[in-house]
Design goal:
Length: about 140
């Protein structure tokens, strides 16, 4: 299974995230659109563990760090598994992103094995925890 960056209603339609699949699709759209779109899908106390070195960031610090990496132009997932129950869903996948770090150069590929933990809220599914084991090209 492969999920790409198209979500019914788009990332801005937060209340429409009535299924985990819609939340995942909205997340792929949001990471190509920017901080506000991602923030709308995250719980305020969301924790993100990421990078080749294992950074642990809260929501705001992660969004700042992620923006400093350059614009994500494309995102897709494959090998998606989801376990849902008790108002929580754990999604694991392989994620590929094309990121434009330097305007005059072509985007580079970043690959990651990702686990996202979604929580059911009155407004729809919200991201509460994410772990990304990124593999980036050598500097």
């Amino acid at each position: 299974m492969t999920t790409t960056q198209t979500a019914p209603g788009g990332a801005g339609e937060v209340r429409g995230l009535d299924t985990v699949a819609r939340a995942e699709a909205a997340w792929l759209v949001a990471i190509t659109e920017g901080d506000e779109q991602q923030r709308a899908l995250m719980l305020p106390d969301c924790v993100i563990v990421h990078g080749p070195a294992g950074n642990v960031h809260d929501r705001e610090r992660f969004l700042t760090y992620n923006a400093s990496m350059g614009a994500t132009l494309e995102a897709e997932t494959s090998e998606v598994t989801c376990r849902e129950g008790g108002g929580r869903a754990v999604v694991t996948c392989f994620q590929k992103m094309r990121i434009r770090r330097v305007p005059d150069l072509p985007p580079f590929l970043v690959q990651a094995v990702v686990t996202r933990v979604w929580f059911a809220t009155d407004e729809g599914w919200r991201l509460g925890h994410m772990q990304l084991s990124r593999r980036q090209p050598a500097a």
